Fold ABC transporter.
Amino acid sequence: MRTRLLLPALLAALPLGGCISFGSNPPPSLLTLNADATVAVGETASSANARSITIAVPGVPQELAVTRIPVRSGDTSVAYLKDAQWVETPNRLFARMLSDTITARTGRVVLTTRVSLGDPGARLGGDLRQFGVDATASEAVVVYDATLVRDRPASSDGARPVMPYEKRRFEARVPMAELTPAAAGTALNQAANKVAGEVAEWVGK
């Protein structure tokens, strides 16, 4: 009797197996960003004798709130490059590249928002507006709208003046010979490094 009861239940469950999906298979390899400007291993920096800056993870539009690479074929058309996937969302990868580049090129101590409550120094934030491929021009495109509040030097009475916000758009385009995950990853890494270098120059020492 028990076998007769179990058999219909098992047969009823079989069709469901073909309907269940746990997500698409990951690509053979994942993409990441590497900063051209690197920090020496073992080098120690202290905010006691160097200026500091707090770098926030950039905001992103919905098309960049994923680990895929958007491909634009017009002003209103966005698709995603097949088999191309970042190890994490591009705004977090880019924030890390900014941190490495600014540290290496300016000597500033880079802080995160979690550890900068006491004295954040200068503050860099903004939005990563584009981080993908322009299929029409065959280019990788990075557009970063940055906001900067510079250091607030204390006056003779110890008060710190309110510093104005500065805003600047940075853009880099790198040609692509082919539309493949490897080519897109390489070109976007180059474009991101160009933007990060210009941001470091803007921030200054």
The helical segments are 2-17, 90-106, 181-203. The chain is about 25% helix and 25% strand. Residues 116 and 199 are 20 Å apart (CA to CA).
